[in-house]
Amino acid sequence: MSSDKDRHHRFAEFWTLALSIAVLAGAAFAGPAQAQSTDTGITGTPDVIDADVLKFGTQRVILWGIDAPERPQTCILNGAFWGCYDAAFRHLQLLAGRGEVTCTYKGDPDPFGRRFGVCESGGDDLSAEMVRAGLALPFHDQSDEYDAAMADAITAGVGVWQVGVVFEEPWVFRRRETPGDLR
After folding, report:
1. What is the CATH number of domain 36-181?
2. pLDDT digits (tens, 9 = 90+) for 21-45
């Protein structure tokens, strides 16, 4: 027969193991770290919810100074439909997925409370990278700082600047197709 001391020892080991498993399981299911937000910006690991919109928890941030193809928008490449929105969306996922993203807010929130922001990851300006890839255009209603990146894209013949691409500027498409012209 085992002594009371052995029984207590096994009981303590069991509960120590059970508690350790519970703590580890909780950490595994906790998900990504919460975004750190201030009045001037937000930092964290966002979800990409549109070709030019990131979501940190409940806060949406529209990339400042650019405009990417809209979800229902398609382009033509060599006479065939090309999913320019899908290409832009995937590229932003790639850029934002490289690590922590920091967005510095610009301007006032839109009517839905979304903020505009200059967002960086790994030292790269995501807006500049989207324009340089030819998957977004400078949005001159906000800024002209991405014109040089567009010149790079045109010179390289990438994204919407490929030979054989026919596209419509996202703001023109949106004004025609979206009530209220909101992004």
Report:
1. 2.40.50.90
2. 444 444 334 444 578 878 899 999 9
Q: Which of 118, 172, 161, 173 is nearest to 143 (CA)?
A: 118
Domain coordinates in residue numbering, the chain = 1-31, 36-181
Q: Is 101 helix (H, G, I), strand (E, B) or coil?
A: strand
DSSP assignment of 23-78:
HHHHHHHS-SPPPEE-SSEEEE-PEEEETTEEEETTEEEEETTEE---TT--EEET
Q: Which residues contact 16 (CB under 8 A, 6 or more apart)?
A: none
Separation between Cα atoms, residue 37 and residue 59, nearest integer Å: 9
- Spatial CA neighbour of 177 closest among 85, 113, 89: 85
Q: Is pTM, for the whole model, over 0.70?
A: yes
Q: Which residues of 27-40 are buried (b: 16+ CB within 10 A; e: fewer)?
A: eeeeeeeebebeee
Enter the tokens of residue 129: 């990278």
Cβ atoms 169, 137 nearer than 8 A = yes
Element spanning 95, H or E: helix 84-96
Rounded to a whole number of angstroms, the distance between the first and last alpha carbons of the chain is 75
CB-CB contact of 36 with 43 (8 Å):
yes
> What single-letter DSSP state applies at residue 107?
S
